[in-house]
Amino acid sequence: MINPIVITGYGIVSSIGMNAGEVLDSLISGHSGIGGITRFETIHKGKLPLAEVKLSNNELVDFCGLRSGGNYTRTTLLGIVAALQAADMAGVNSGQNLRTGLILATTVGGMDRSEDFYPLFLENPSKGRLRDVVNHDCGDSTEKIAEILGINDFMTTISTACSSSANSLMLGAELIRAGMLDRVIAGGTDAVTRFTLNGFNTLMILDKEGCRPFDENRAGLTIGEGAAFLVLESEANALKHGKTIYSILSGYGNANDAYHQTASSPEGTGATLAMKKALEMGDLLPESISYINVHGTGTQNNDLSEGIALEKIFGEKVPRFSSTKSFTGHTLGAAGAIEAVISLLSVQNNMVFPNLRWSTPMKELRIRPVTELKREAGVKHVLSNSFGFGGNNSSLVLSKYIS
Amino acid sequence: MVTTSNAIYINGLGNVSPRKTSDSSHFLEDPVIASTNRLACIEPNYRDFISPDILRRMGRLIKMGVASSRICLEDAGCMMPDAIITGTGLGCLEDTEKFLATLVRNKEELLTPTSFIQSTHNTVSAQIALLLKCHNYNFTYVHRGWSFESALVDAMVRIKNGRASTVLAGGMDELTNGSFAVTSRLGHWRRKPADTSLLFSSPAKGSIAGEGSAFFLLTSAPSSKTYAALSGLQTFSRKAMNKPLPAILEEFLGQSGLLSSDIDLAVCGMNGDKTSDSIYKELTASLGTAGIAAWKHLSGEYMTSSAFGLWMASMIMKWGYVPEQAVIRNTGERPIKTVLIYNHYLDRNHSFILIRKP
């Protein structure tokens, strides 16, 4: 592959851990982050599960070593945790004169605070604290995090629903390939809000028992929160600066299902196209994929459509696959980056992580997910899928780095 | 980060704005709206673009986006772009506010999904793809005053990296009563209606609010439709660069082998707010005899208004003159070959866009 893009740092925060080590421990021990609603008041408390990060906003401020009163949204705070880890790991602040960009993905932005603003504002447009609404837009998190990391060369924000942060990695790689940046911190962050919880609830796609991806009796997804960032650079740049290379981003592709605003096509058109593009870019045959970290939300529609696409591409030999949303919940705009980090952990540790809460095969499909941890799993190339509203389908391939 | 290219062309335009811009057979000839502090789009007959059963459920920004994208594709004669890339500061705000208001009023009960579904930021780009049955690359950028510029950067990079030869790129935002109320409290707008034709000659605190949706078909090859070549773009923070604006511009132009004296016309985002406009003056003072034009008295201020600016600059290039209502300083006899579009949003998100005669 010409001009390989490598990963020299990563950070992650989710309901199963505040850093990559804790996340890996949970994945190995089979500890899911899905549980009851504890952080905010809602009529769904006790009825619907969530995958929450247990720290409150004030605790997150302390965790990041920030001064209090900085007017951060929860989405920003989660993003800061993961971005700082990634930047530290890759030595982003260690003084080389490199052109560095930040690409952040989010779907809710500062909605958690807008929810506090709105009740008073609705009664009287001159009421409601303005400091609760000035951070509403998605770009706010990016500018706050760029300031903390000291990044000025380029920054932007992507929002393409549940594929958002897979797409931020794609743009990052393309900017490096075009020779416009030397290094990109790319990823995503999303907090759980009443807005998204109620939104998905109106679609009747929230599983009361917690998501059961690829199970015949699955009844929907479970919303989660978290953030993840990866540091991308060209292999040449990483080697020149003596960086540790953790993985290669060897392929990626985005395609549109163009079928329905929220539902996936029964043939999995967009999913198939995205996976094919990613394999082609990586110059990979389907049989070279060792593990697929599927989108696997646990909705009737996604898992069937994605499963059909997998059978279409891989035929009789579908690689081992699992949905780690059974651990982290569906972290929406952060999911693509969170699952990219989990895929990287799979490559690094030569493990395939299980799909929890699975018991019955889907009757329409021949394939079934991996349900137990596999060690010494011969992991060379991991395919990671992220599909979103608006038919936005993205696939990434993370590969073992051999110098 | 500066993006440059020798081979990216603007081959089609579509613009739904507070002016009669959706019809490209004339160029800003309708009279300027006299007195207001908020401008609303003149919306086209959507039935010309969208079937009535789909139209009924669509949010207003989606309609504006779909219509302007269709006008653009038809203008360029390309109905299946290799990529669809949008930029929007706040997305489908009307639907977002509707869902949030119902959630609050109904205390999370009896909610319906339509406004939630449409509140997703990528709804406009998704609906364009859905109606075209376009399975290609589809991205949406949501970064304040850099939302549209980010879409352009991505489009330029896709063409440069050989991933696409035709890209539909656009910027869109809608103004709602809710967002107008909030931004009024933040001091963004004139307290009293202003004479929009005198916006720049009577500077005061605040601008006028606006909205719009403008699309561009960018291609790797020129055609008989080509308006201009898109040759450079930079998003920057004045604060972080810590340099005078003319110096930032010199560096930007240098990447394309140009000097500031090569600029024939600067299309600037002045908005009538005295603090904001003094920043534009810092740049235009260094541009010698170049002409100066402005657009925000026509479109109003919003996060993706630079899309209106690029539309106007592209039209100027094709029509060969600056419409009278946009002139701040005449170009005189100077032919218009190199045009700079300079915009900033709240002195936070600055951008340069450079277009040249193909």
Strand arrangement, largest sheet of chain A?
3-2-4-5-1-6-10-9-7-8
- What's the average pLDDT of chain B? 96
Radius of gyration of chain A: 20 Å
Task: Let me know the largest β-sheet of chain B.
Answer: 12 strands, mixed
Anisotropy-based shape of chain B: globular
Q: Tally the beta strands of chain B.
A: 14
Q: Give the CATH H-level superfamily of the largest domain in chain A.
A: Thiolase/Chalcone synthase
User: Taking Cα atoms only, what radius of gyration of chain B do you get, to the nearest Å?
Assistant: 19 Å
What fraction of residues of chain B sit in β-strands? 15-25%
| H/E element order of chain A | EHHHEHHEHEHEHEHEHEHHEE
Assign an overall shape of chain A. globular
Overall number of structural domains of chain A: 2
Average predicted local confidence, pLDDT of chain A: 96
Biggest interface, chains and residues, is: A-B, 68 and 67 residues
What does this structure look like?
The complex is a heterodimer of chains A (403) and B (358). In chain A, 33% of the residues lie in helices and 17% in strands. Chain A has twelve helices and ten strands. A ten-stranded mixed sheet of chain A has the order 3-2-4-5-1-6-10-9-7-8, sandwiched between helices. In chain A, strand 7, helix 10 and strand 8 form a beta-alpha-beta unit. The two termini of chain A are 13 Å apart. Chain B has two domains: 213 residues, Peroxisomal Thiolase, Chain A, domain 1, CATH 3.40.47.10; 126 residues, Thiolase/Chalcone synthase (Peroxisomal Thiolase, Chain A, domain 1, 3-Layer(aba) Sandwich). Helices cover 33% and strands 22% of the residues of chain B. In chain B, the strands form two sheets. In chain B, strands 1, 2, 4, 5, 6, 8, 9, 10, 11, 12, 13 and 14 form a twelve-stranded mixed sheet that branches. In chain B, strands 3-7 form a two-stranded antiparallel sheet. The two termini of chain B are 24 Å apart.
